[in-house]
């Protein structure tokens, strides 16, 4: 308990000493700030004169003028300065006279002196308060010393009690030792008695046992007393050690208190001396400055009389300048208003010019596209459209599913691909963003579809990697059909609009190239392999013997044909596409027309091709039959690339027969057809390599020139509707081969004029 009390008193004394040191430090800071404040007030007196001089120089620089005017301004500024100094000196004189029994009331130096004296008295009061606080601290230290003496008395009392306890224990120890000695002297006699009464009665034996047990008990008591004695000795030694430690700590605390008290007195004396020295220095500096002001007062009085005319002139100029400054905000507002109006007018003119330039640019862009399309038509180039599918859930999440394709806002024929940190730009004939609808895509290709009615061969094929959306673009869905169904609907619409003058028959065939085998999707035996052959009429056209043709006359017929062919087409699931097309699908639409008024026959063919997607076997995970299908698909697409390269480089031999796909598309790629390639790409980051290859192939295809396209039209006799239908059967038949029926002898005048018109129209 005494140790804990001593520890608590030590901590409390340390906290009080720290508090006293903090108070002394705060008092030193206050006195230092007060002395700095006095020095600042003295410096303020010096700054006033400098400010007046700077103000006069500023006014002089603003007014400007001739040398005489500048001299006049200089004199006026000097006059003003001297006048101010004179006022200050007069105030100081009045203060001095008031001090010499002639009171002066408004002298600033008097007020400053009074302030200094008041501050001095305040500092003295604060010093008295500090002394009082020091006295209080001394009293507190004395009280703590008294409490420490009381603690020492208590400690001495406890030590006395401990000594008495030790004395009592010593007496008990001596009694125990005496008892042990007496017990030690008894055993020999007992042994002797034991030996002598060894054959006595049972009572003697019982007494002997009791004596032995008592002897054992006494020996145990002696051992216990010895143990207690050792413990008491150890406690006595520990108490003596504790007493010595407490006495050493008390002496240390007393020395620390004396040292802290001495330091406190020394710091208070140093603070008092520093305060007195600061007050004396401030007072001496004020006296020196007062003397300097008195010395300048005489010169100020002499210059004051000469500067009065210049002062009046300066006052007049100052008033005029003040009026100008007062009117300046109005002039500034008018100037700003006019400037804003001019800037607004200029901005409006720039905007109008920009709108006009943008309008002209868009008009020129449309004209350029129109001229480019006409040039493509004349040269027979393959038109290339690009379509970017949207990001889907099959692309996954994370960095690999980010969009890597961007579009040009000013040109809808340019797209940009970010591949390995570099941006690659591609220019096609038209680019459709992911938000483009099926209707928008078909609006761009419907002109080609309608030219089929006029007797031209047209081929539209979709190219791209697997899962890029080729089948969706060509076939679509039931609710949102693609190019195939929309093309037939458009053909029916055109046929109905020309029904007054023309008779048309539309037949449809569907085939697929699966593992380099051509199969009929509308036939009764779709596994039967077909062959591609030249027409025996010498026209050089290709046809497929045994390919089923269905005549369609309504949308319901179209849906039946599509449903029948779609069921038989081969599709499988891969890692890249859940419904991957494993074959090249071809929809062949033949339109035969007859002009009843002229007897003109036209035959147009529309080939709609949905190519199987190129795929990397490592990514698609194709195995077994899927692997064999992927190999045949890649081989046929590679053959298509070889054909495009040969056509682009104008080689003499074009390898159409290297693949069933290229051989079947020979009519469309050899210059006698209007051809459009719809390249489908994926915008996902993980597919940028395939997208780059597809777009590069599209640029190569776009540069191929096939030559002008010829129209398939011939003049014949005027057959009846039944003859036209007989030439275009609705059941399975081979494609028409252009039968021409010429009458013997000279044609009539009307037929000759029709021929001239056809030759003129080309």
Measured distance between first and last alpha carbons? 127 Å
Relative helix content: 55-70%
| CATH level-four homologous superfamily name of the domain at 382-570 and 580-617 and 625-708 | Kinesin motor domain
* Structural class determined from secondary elements: alpha+beta
Can you tell me the residue ranges where pLDDT is under 50 for at least 5 consecutive residues? Answer: 101-105, 188-199, 575-579, 717-762
User: What is the alpha-carbon Rg in Å?
Assistant: 61 Å
CATH topology name of the domain at 382-570 and 580-617 and 625-708: Kinesin
Number of helices: 17
CATH secondary-structure class of the domain at 382-570 and 580-617 and 625-708: Alpha Beta
Multimeric status of the protein:
single chain
Mean pLDDT: 76
Q: Which of globular, elongated, flat, extended, rod-shaped describes the shape?
A: flat
Main sheet? 11 strands, mixed
Sheet-strand content, in percent, reads 5-15%
Give the CATH architecture of the domain at 382-570 and 580-617 and 625-708. Answer: 3-Layer(aba) Sandwich
Strands, count:
18
Domain Kinesin motor: 381-704
Region (Disordered): 715-762
Main location: other
Membrane topology: Peripheral membrane protein
Q: Any overview of this molecule?
A:
It is a single chain. With 762 residues, this protein is of the alpha+beta class. The chain has helices at 2-63, 67-99, 108-185, 187-196, 202-306, 308-379, 438-451, 470-474, 483-497, 555-568, 617-620, 625-648, 660-664, 666-669, 688-702, 721-727, 749-761; strands at 383-388, 405-407, 414-419, 422-427, 430-432, 458-464, 502-514, 517-520, 529-530, 533-534, 542-543, 550-551, 571-572, 580-581, 584-595, 600-610, 674-681, 713-715. Among the domains are: 246-379; 382-570 and 580-617 and 625-708, Kinesin (3-Layer(aba) Sandwich). Helix content is 63%, strand content 12%. Strands 1, 5, 6, 7, 8, 9, 12, 15, 16, 17 and 18 form an eleven-stranded mixed β-sheet that branches. The protein has a three-stranded antiparallel β-sheet with strand order 2-3-4, with helices on one face. It is found in: Cell junction, Adherens junction; Cytoplasm, Cytoskeleton, Microtubule organizing center, Centrosome; Cytoplasmic vesicle membrane. This is Kinesin-like protein.
């Amino acid at each position: 308990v005494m140790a804990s009390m001593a520890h608590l008193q030590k901590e409390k004394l340390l906290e009080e000493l720290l508090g006293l040191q903090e108070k002394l430090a705060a008092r030193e800071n206050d006195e230092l700030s007060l002395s700095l404040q006095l020095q600042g007030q003295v410096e303020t007196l010096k700054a006033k004169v400098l400010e007046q001089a700077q103000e006069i120089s500023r006014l002089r620089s603003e007014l400007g003028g001739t040398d005489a005017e500048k001299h006049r301004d200089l004199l006026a500024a000097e006059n003003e300065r001297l006048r101010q100094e004179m006022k200050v000196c007069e105030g100081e004189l009045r203060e001095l006279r008031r001090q010499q029994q002639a009171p002066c009331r408004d002298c600033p130096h008097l007020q400053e002196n009074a302030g200094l004296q008041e501050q001095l008295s305040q500092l003295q009061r604060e010093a008295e308060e500090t002394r009082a606080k020091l006295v209080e601290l001394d009293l507190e230290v004395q009280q703590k010393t008294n409490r420490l003496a009381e603690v020492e008395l208590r400690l001495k009392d406890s030590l006395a009690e401990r000594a008495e306890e030790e004395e009592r224990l010593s007496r008990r120890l001596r009694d125990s030792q005496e008892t042990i000695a007496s017990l030690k002297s008894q055993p020999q006699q007992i042994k002797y008695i034991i030996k002598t009464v060894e054959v006595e009665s049972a009572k003697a034996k019982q007494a002997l046992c009791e004596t032995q047990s008592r002897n054992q008990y006494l020996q145990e008591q002696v051992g216990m007393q010895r143990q207690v004695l050792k413990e008491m000795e150890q406690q006595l030694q520990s108490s003596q050690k504790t007493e010595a430690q407490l006495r050493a700590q008390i002496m240390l605390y007393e020395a620390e208190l004396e040292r802290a008290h001495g330091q406190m007195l020394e710091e208070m004396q140093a603070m008092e001396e520093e305060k007195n020295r600061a007050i004396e220095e401030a007072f001496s500096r004020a006296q020196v400055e007062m003397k300097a002001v008195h010395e300048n007062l005489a010169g100020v009085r002499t210059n004051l009389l000469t500067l009065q005319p210049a002062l009046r002139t300066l006052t007049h100029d100052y008033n005029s300048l003040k009026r100008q400054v007062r009117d300046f905000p109005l002039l500034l507002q008018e100037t700003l208003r006019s400037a804003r109006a001019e800037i607004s007018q200029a901005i409006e003119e720039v905007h109008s010019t920009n709108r006009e330039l943008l309008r002209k640019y868009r008009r020129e862009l449309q004209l350029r596209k129109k001229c480019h399309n006409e040039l493509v038509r004349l040269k027979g180039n393959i038109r290339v459209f690009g379509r970017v599918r949207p990001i889907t859930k099959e692309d996954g999440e994370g960095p690999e599913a980010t969009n890597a394709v961007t579009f040009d806002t000013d040109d809808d024929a340019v797209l940009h691909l970010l591949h390995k940190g570099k941006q690659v730009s591609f220019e096609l004939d038209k680019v459709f963003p992911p938000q483009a609808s099926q209707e928008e895509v078909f609006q761009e290709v419907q002109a080609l579809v309608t030219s089929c009615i006029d007797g031209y061969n047209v081929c539209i094929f979709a190219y791209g990697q697997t899962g890029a959306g080729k089948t969706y673009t060509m076939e679509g869905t039931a609710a949102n059909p693609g190019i195939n169904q929309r093309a037939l609907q458009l053909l029916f619409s055109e046929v109905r609009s020309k029904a007054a003058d023309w008779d048309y028959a539309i037949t449809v065939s569907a085939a697929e190239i699966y593992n380099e085998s051509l199969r009929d999707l509308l036939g009764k035996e779709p596994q039967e392999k077909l062959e591609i052959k030249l027409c025996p009429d010498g026209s050089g056209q290709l046809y497929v013997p045994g390919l089923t043709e269905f005549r369609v006359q309504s949308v319901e017929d179209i849906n039946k044909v599509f449903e029948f062919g779609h069921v038989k087409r081969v599709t499988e699931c891969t890692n890249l596409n859940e419904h991957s097309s494993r074959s090249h699908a071809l929809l062949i639409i033949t339109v035969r027309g007859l002009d009843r008024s002229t007897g003109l026959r036209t035959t147009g063919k529309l080939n709609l091709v949905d190519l199987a997607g190129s795929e990397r076997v490592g990514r698609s995970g194709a195995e077994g039959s899927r692997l064999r299908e992927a190999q045949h698909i890649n081989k046929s697409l590679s053959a298509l690339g070889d054909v495009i390269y040969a056509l682009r480089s104008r080689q003499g031999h074009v390898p159409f027969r290297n693949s069933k796909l290229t051989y079947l598309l020979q009519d469309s790629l050899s210059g006698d057809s209007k051809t459009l390639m719809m390249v489908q790409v994926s915008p996902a980051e993980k597919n940028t390599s395939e997208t780059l290859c597809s777009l590069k192939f599209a640029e190569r295809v776009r540069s191929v020139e096939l030559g002008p396209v010829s129209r398939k039209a011939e003049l014949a006799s005027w057959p009846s509707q039944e003859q036209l239908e007989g030439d275009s059967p609705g059941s399975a038949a081979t494609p028409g081969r252009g039968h021409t029926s010429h009458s013997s002898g000279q044609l009539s005048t009307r037929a000759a004029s029709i021929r001239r018109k056809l030759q003129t129209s080309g």
